[in-house]
Design a protein that fits this description.
By secondary structure, the protein is an alpha/beta fold. It has a single domain, classed as Alpha-Beta Barrel (TIM Barrel), CATH 3.20.20.70. It contains 8 helices and 8 strands. It has an 8-stranded mixed beta sheet with strand order 1-2-3-4-5-6-7-8, covered by helices on one side. Helix 2 links the parallel strand 3 and strand 4. The site of iron/sulfur cluster has 12 residues, from loops.
C-alpha cells in the first residue's frame, strides 16, 4: 500500500474538530500557494517527518482517550487514495474523522463521504480575488463544487473565511456569506488574518511582506452591523479574532 506523507502532528486539541477531543495530522502537499499561508513548509509534497505506521500505532493507543482525528495540511486530499485509505483505517479504530480542506478536489471529496464525518472548508475570497489569494486558477469553481456536494450529503461542515484585508473587503465577506447561506451552509466562521512572515521568505511560498495594520485586520470584528447581518444568515457563526 502506498504510504502517506505526514508533515506534522498535534496530539490533542479541543478546537480543530467541533465538540470532539481530537488529534490533528498535517499531511504534506498543497495545490495552492496562498499569500498568507501559515504552513508553507507543508506546500511541497515532501516525504514528511512522521512514519505513518508509527503514527497509526500511536493512534491505536489513543482509542478511548480521543474521540476524533482531523486530517489537515497542506491539503490532505492531494495525496489521493493513500490518504483516503489511511482515513478509512483510522476510522475503523473507532475515531470520528474530520477534514480541513481547501476544496480543490471535489472528485476526491466525493470518495470520502462515508469516511469523513465533518469538514472545515476554506472559502478564501470572492471569485474575482480567488487567484490573487491562492496563486492558481480554477480554485474557486472547484471549491464551490466541493461546497455544494458536501451540503448535499447532509454531513456536518463549517465554512470559514480568513479576512485578509488585502483580498477580502466587508462587502466581499457579505457576498461570500450570501453564497454560503443560499447553498444551505448552516455553520460559518469568520477568521482574523494574522501575518505569517515579517520579512522576505525563501521557502517557495507566496507569503508577502505585509503592511496591513491591526485596525484593518480587525475591521470585520468591530462592525456590529456587519456582524448582525452575517449572524442572521446562519444557525451559528464563530468570530475568531485571536
Ligand atoms: S490552502 Fe493555502 S493556506 Fe492552506 S496549506 Fe495550502 S497554501 Fe497554505
Amino acid at each position: 500500500m502506498k504510504q502517506i506523507h505526514i508533515g506534522g502532528l498535534v496530539s490533542f486539541t479541543t478546537i480543530d474538530f467541533p465538540g470532539k477531543l481530537a488529534a490533528v495530522l498535517f499531511l504534506c502537499g498543497c495545490p495552492f500557494k496562498c499569500a498568507y499561508c501559515s504552513n508553507p513548509h507543508l506546500i511541497p509534497l515532501s516525504d514528511g517527518e512522521y512514519d505513518p505506521d508509527k503514527v497509526f500505532e500511536w493512534l491505536k493507543n489513543r482509542v478511548g482517550k480521543l474521540e476524533g482525528v482531523v486530517f489537515s495540511g497542506g491539503e490532505a486530499l492531494m495525496q489521493g487514495d493513500a490518504a483516503i485509505d489511511y482515513m478509512r483505517r483510522v476510522r475503523e479504530l473507532g475515531f470520528a474523522i474530520g477534514l480541513h480542506t481547501n476544496g480543490f478536489y471535489p472528485e476526491l471529496l466525493k470518495k470520502v463521504s462515508g469516511i469523513v464525518d465533518w469538514i472545515g472548508l476554506d472559502f478564501k475570497a470572492t471569485r474575482a480575488r480567488y487567484r490573487d489569494v491562492t496563486g492558481v486558477d480554477a480554485g474557486y469553481d472547484r471549491m464551490i463544487e466541493s461546497l455544494n456536494y458536501w451540503v448535499h450529503t447532509g454531513c456536518e461542515m463549517e465554512v470559514r473565511t480568513t479576512c485578509d484585508p488585502r483580498f477580502v473587503s466587508k462587502q466581499d465577506l457579505l457576498e461570500i456569506a450570501d453564497i454560503c447561506a443560499a447553498s444551505g451552509v448552516r455553520h460559518f466562521a469568520v477568521q482574523k488574518y494574522k501575518p505569517y512572515h515579517e520579512g522576505d521568505c525563501d521557502c517557495g511560498c507566496r507569503n508577502m511582506p505585509d503592511k496591513t495594520t491591526d485596525a484593518e485586520r480587525n475591521q470585520f470584528f468591530v462592525d456590529d452591523e456587519l456582524r448582525q447581518k452575517i449572524n442572521s444568515k446562519f444557525e451559528t457563526v464563530v468570530w475568531r479574532d485571536q
